[in-house]
C-alpha cells in the first residue's frame, strides 16, 4: 500500500512513525504547509502531486477541520483512492456525501480513529449491528474534558491551567473550545449514532452543553452529594425517533464512568441480544490515535471496506426526560415550576425533556454567561 499522509502534526507524525518499519505499507508523500527537513523529498505542498500519482492508492488524513479536508477527501475518493481519516468534523458533517462518493468509485472510506482515539469502537459497533439492534450508546468520548474534570475533582486547580496542560500533552484540539464546549464529542456522537442507528444526524439534531462554566464550587457540591460529573454523550432510540445529546452528567460514584481517569474514554453500546458492551482506553493522544489510522489501512489491505449504513435515513428527533442540576442567576418561571430541591449554589429540577432544557440554557446564555447545568442519571 502506498500512502499519502495529509498533515504532519501530532497524529500524522505518529502515523508515519508506526508505518516506518512495516513492509506492507509505505508513506510515499507527506502533505503539510510547514517545512520538515527530516522528510526530505517525501514532503510535498501540493495535493495535485498526490492525486496525479497512480502509485498512491490510499490517502490517510490527520489534518482536521472541514476545509480543505473535504475537497481532498472527495478528490481522492473520486479518483478511486482509499481515504482513511481521524477527522471527526469531516466525517460527521459530510457523512452522506463521502459515503456516496466512496460507494460510487469503489474506494474504501474508514474513520476508526475519529471516535475514541485508539479505541476500536466504531469497528466493533458496526460489527455488533450485524447481529443485533443497538438500543443506545453512551459514554465519555472526549479525553481533554475528562482530563480536566478528573484533575479538578482530585485537586483544586484552575480550569485554565489544567486546559493548558491538556494542550501540552497533545489531547486538546487546535482550538480547545471544540473540546470544552462539547463540539468534539458532539461530532463523535453523530458518527457513532449514524453507525449505531443507521441514521443521518446533523449538528442541529444534537443539543450540546459543555463544561466551560463548571466551577470548583460545583464540583465540591457534587462530591458532597455523592455525584461525579463527567461530560457524557448519549444516543438512544426513543418511541418517537432517535435522541442524541451531549451534556455534563452527574453520575453515582458506583457508575463505571465515574472511575474513568485522565484522558481515558469509556464508551458503551447496548444491544438487544448483547446487552451492554463497553470499550475503555486512550481516547486521545498521538500514538493511540495513529495506531487506529494504521489499523484501518491494514483492514483495507485485508479486503475490508467502510463500515457504514445507508447514510440516507433521517429519523425524527426524539427526546428524553431526566432531572437536571441548574445554576443560574437568570429568573425564569419555567425553571421555578420545575424546582425540586436546592443543591449547593443551584437547584435540582423534576424530570424535564433534554430538548427543552438545552433550549432554555441557550435562551439565558446572554443574560447569564456563567450559567451551568448538568443532567442527573
Ligand atoms: N481533542 C480530542 C479529545 C482528541 O480530547 O478527545 C481525540 O479525538
How does this model look, in words?
- There is one protein chain.
- By secondary structure, the protein is an alpha/beta fold.
- Helix content is 35%, strand content 24%.
- The protein has 14 helices and 17 strands.
- It has helices at 10-19, 47-51, 69-78, 88-93, 95-105, 121-129, 143-154, 159-168, 177-180, 183-197, 216-224, 286-301, 333-338, 354-363; strands spanning 2-6, 26-31, 43-44, 58-61, 82-85, 109-110, 134-140, 227-238, 241-252, 264-271, 275-282, 321-322, 324-327, 339-343, 346-349, 352-353, 372-376.
- The strands form three sheets. Strands 11-10-7-8-9-17-13-15-14 form a nine-stranded mixed sheet, with helices on both faces. Strands 3-2-1-4-5-6 form a six-stranded parallel sheet, with helices on both faces. A two-stranded antiparallel sheet has the order 12-16.
- The radius of gyration is 21 Å and the shape is globular.
- The site of L-homoserine has 11 residues, from helix 7.
- Residues 117, 142-144, 171-173, 179, 184, 283-284 line the site of L-homoserine (HSE).
Tell me briefly what this model is.
With 377 residues, the chain is of the alpha/beta class. It contains 14 helices and 17 strands. Helix 1 (10-19) packs across helix 12 and helix 3 packs parallel to helix 5 (95-105).
Amino acid at each position: 500500500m502506498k500512502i499519502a499522509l495529509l498533515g504532519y502534526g501530532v497524529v500524522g507524525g505518529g502515523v508515519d512513525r508506526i508505518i516506518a518499519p512495516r513492509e506492507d505499507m509505505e508513506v510515499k508523500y507527506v502533505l503539510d504547509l510547514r517545512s520538515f527537513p527530516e522528510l526530505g523529498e517525501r514532503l510535498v505542498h501540493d495535493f495535485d502531486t498526490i492525486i496525479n500519482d497512480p502509485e498512491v492508492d490510499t490517502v490517510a488524513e490527520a489534518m482536521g477541520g472541514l476545509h480543505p479536508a473535504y475537497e481532498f477527501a472527495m478528490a481522492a475518493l473520486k479518483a478511486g483512492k482509499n481515504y482513511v481519516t481521524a477527522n471527526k468534523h469531516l466525517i460527521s458533517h459530510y457523512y452522506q456525501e463521502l459515503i456516496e462518493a466512496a460507494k460510487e468509485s469503489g474506494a474504501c472510506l474508514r474513520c476508526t480513529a475519529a471516535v475514541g482515539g485508539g479505541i476500536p469502537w466504531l469497528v466493533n459497533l458496526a460489527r455488533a449491528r450485524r447481529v443485533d439492534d443497538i438500543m443506545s450508546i453512551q459514554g465519555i468520548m472526549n479525553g481533554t474534558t475528562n482530563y480536566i474534570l478528573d484533575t479538578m475533582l482530585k485537586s483544586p486547580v484552575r480550569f485554565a491551567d489544567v486546559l493548558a496542560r491538556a494542550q501540552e500533552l497533545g489531547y486538546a484540539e487546535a482550538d480547545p473550545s471544540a473540546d470544552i464546549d462539547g463540539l468534539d464529542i458532539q461530532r463523535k456522537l453523530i458518527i457513532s449514532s449514524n453507525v449505531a442507528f443507521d441514521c443521518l444526524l446533523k449538528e442541529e439534531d444534537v443539543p450540546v452543553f459543555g463544561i466551560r462554566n463548571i466551577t470548583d464550587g460545583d464540583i465540591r457540591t457534587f462530591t458532597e452529594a455523592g455525584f461525579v460529573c463527567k461530560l457524557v454523550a448519549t444516543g438512544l432510540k426513543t418511541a418517537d425517533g432517535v435522541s442524541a445529546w451531549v451534556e455534563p452528567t452527574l453520575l453515582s460514584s458506583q457508575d463505571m464512568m465515574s472511575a474513568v481517569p485522565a484522558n481515558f474514554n469509556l464508551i458503551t453500546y447496548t444491544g438487544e441480544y448483547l446487552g451492554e458492551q463497553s470499550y475503555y482506553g486512550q481516547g486521545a493522544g498521538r500514538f493511540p490515535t495513529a495506531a487506529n489510522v494504521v489499523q484501518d489501512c491494514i483492514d483495507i489491505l485485508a479486503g475490508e471496506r467502510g463500515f457504514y449504513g445507508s447514510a440516507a435515513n433521517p429519523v425524527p428527533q426524539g427526546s428524553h426526560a431526566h432531572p437536571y442540576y441548574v445554576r443560574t442567576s437568570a429568573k425564569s418561571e419555567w425553571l421555578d415550576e420545575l424546582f425540586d430541591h436546592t443543591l449547593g449554589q443551584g437547584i435540582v429540577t423534576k424530570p424535564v425533556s433534554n430538548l427543552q432544557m438545552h433550549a432554555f440554557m441557550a435562551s439565558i446564555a446572554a443574560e447569564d454567561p456563567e450559567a451551568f447545568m448538568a443532567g442527573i442519571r
